[in-house]
């Protein structure tokens, strides 16, 4: 009988399927449904630094605190404290309501704003903390090292102030992604989530306004994650890789585990098909493992990563022209 148990960030999970940080994990009722459907863990909806700043500015724009600097300071402190308190309550309530691991999430863009908050998250009982970091570099005169420095600062500063394991969710936009993940891994971070799905802009040609592009992933989006999970899991041994984006069924989950992922994170598929998609993914993995005579996830994890296949160049871009030459 196939056993789906695994570990992530040193935490035991009943299976490798984690529900990503999203609106799916912003209430106890939803989290219970995800647990009932078979989720191995949940990442709570992120608390956004930008969201808190927006709420503060909204109160100031309404005229609150404009007459007295002390009042403005109070509004800023109160709004931040209110947002943080509500999030800490979600952590405590989730831990009391479900048995699966509860991972908190911070979406930040500054290096030191979230150090104290990370400690509060630990005190609230979160099993781990996911740092959701993304910064667009638009300065043509800056160096890549300047851009990457923020990631290393956040990783090191937060890892030093908490004892719970920390993961960092990042995007693929680095000139040396393997080097960046390696640097993160020696800063105290125990996991890397590949990849973040960012807001992408689109243009409405009728109204001449910017709008949001499609927010949900598609099964085809697994391609980028698959490549880099396979490469990084082979080259960096001291960090857990969690694969995110494009996981819509059991086949995708198995592919990413074969590529070396410790866990897979699911979001868009649940939005589109409901929590039962988690059950189907787990059932598919069990049946596949039975068919292949694998007793545990460890029996096949990484069997198809960069260092395990005869021709690792298949994971590199050099195969691009070879592939398309077949369609001349």
> Could you tell me the radius of gyration in angstroms?
21 Å
Largest β sheet strand count, sense and barrel closure: 8 strands, parallel, barrel
- Give the averaged pLDDT, no decimals: 86
Straight-line N-to-C gap: 47 Å
Keywords: Flavoprotein, FMN, Oxidoreductase, Pyrimidine biosynthesis
Pathway: Pyrimidine metabolism; UMP biosynthesis via de novo pathway
Protein name: Dihydroorotate dehydrogenase (Fumarate)
InterPro entries: Aldolase_TIM, DHO_dehydrogenase, Dihydroorotate_DH_1_2, Dihydroorotate_DH_cat
List the topology elements.
Layout: E1 6-8, E2 11-13, E3 17-19, H1 28-37, E4 41-43, E5 47-48, H2 49-61, H3 69-97, E6 102-108, H4 115-124, E7 128-133, H5 144-161, E8 166-170, H6 177-185, E9 191-194, E10 201-204, E11 209-212, H7 222-235, E12 240-244, H8 250-258, E13 263-266, H9 268-273, H10 276-292, H11 320-324
Parallel strand pairs: 3-4, 3-13, 4-6, 5-6, 6-7, 7-8, 8-9, 9-12, 12-13
Antiparallel strand pairs: 1-2, 10-11
Gist of the model:
With 328 residues, the chain is of the alpha/beta class. It is 43% helix and 16% strand.
Task: Explain what this protein looks like in three dimensions.
By secondary structure, the chain is an alpha/beta fold. It has one domain (6-327): Aldolase class I (TIM Barrel, Alpha-Beta Barrel), CATH 3.20.20.70. Helices cover 43% and strands 16% of the residues. The chain has an 8-stranded parallel barrel, surrounded by 8 helices. A two-stranded antiparallel sheet has the order 1-2. Strands 10-11 form a two-stranded antiparallel sheet. The longest helix has 29 residues, at 69-97. The chain is globular and about 55 Å long. Residues 50-79 have low confidence and may be disordered. InterPro entries: Aldolase_TIM, DHO_dehydrogenase, Dihydroorotate_DH_1_2, Dihydroorotate_DH_cat. It comes from Thermophagus xiamenensis. This is Dihydroorotate dehydrogenase (Fumarate).
């Amino acid at each position: 009988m196939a056993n789906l148990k695994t570990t992530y960030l040193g935490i035991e999970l009943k299976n490798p399927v984690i529900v990503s940080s999203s609106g799916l994990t912003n209430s106890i009722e939803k989290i219970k449904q995800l647990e009932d459907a078979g989720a191995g863990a949940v990442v709570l909806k992120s608390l956004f630094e930008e969201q808190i700043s927006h709420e503060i500015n909204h109160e100031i724009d309404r005229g609150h605190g404009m007459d007295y600097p002390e009042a403005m300071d109070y509004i800023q402190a109160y709004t931040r404290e209110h947002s943080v308190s509500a999030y800490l309550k979600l952590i405590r309530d989730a831990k009391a309501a479900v048995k699966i691991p509860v991972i908190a999430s911070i979406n930040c863009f500054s290096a030191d704003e979230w150090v104290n908050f990370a400690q509060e998250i630990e005190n609230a009982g979160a099993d781990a903390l996911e740092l959701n970091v993304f910064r667009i570099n638009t300065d043509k005169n800056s160096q890549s090292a300047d851009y990457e420095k923020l990631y290393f600062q956040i990783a090191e500063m937060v890892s030093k102030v908490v004892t719970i394991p920390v993961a960092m969710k990042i995007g693929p936009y680095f000139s040396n992604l393997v080097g960046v993940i390696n640097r993160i891994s020696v800063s105290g971070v125990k996991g890397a989530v590949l990849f973040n799905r960012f807001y992408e802009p689109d243009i409405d040609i009728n109204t001449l306004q910017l709008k949001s592009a499609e927010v949900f992933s598609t099964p085809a989006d697994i391609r980028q994650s698959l490549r880099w999970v396979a490469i990084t899991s082979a080259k960096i041994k001291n960090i857990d890789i969690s694969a995110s984006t494009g996981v819509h069924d059991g086949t995708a989950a198995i592919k990413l585990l074969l590529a070396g992922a410790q866990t897979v994170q699911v979001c868009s598929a649940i939005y589109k098909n409901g929590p039962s998609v988690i059950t189907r993914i787990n059932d598919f993995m069990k049946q596949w493992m039975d068919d292949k005579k694998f007793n545990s996830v460890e029996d096949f994890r990484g069997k198809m990563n960069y260092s395990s296949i005869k021709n690792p160049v298949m994971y590199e871009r050099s195969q691009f022209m070879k592939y398309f030459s077949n369609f001349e």
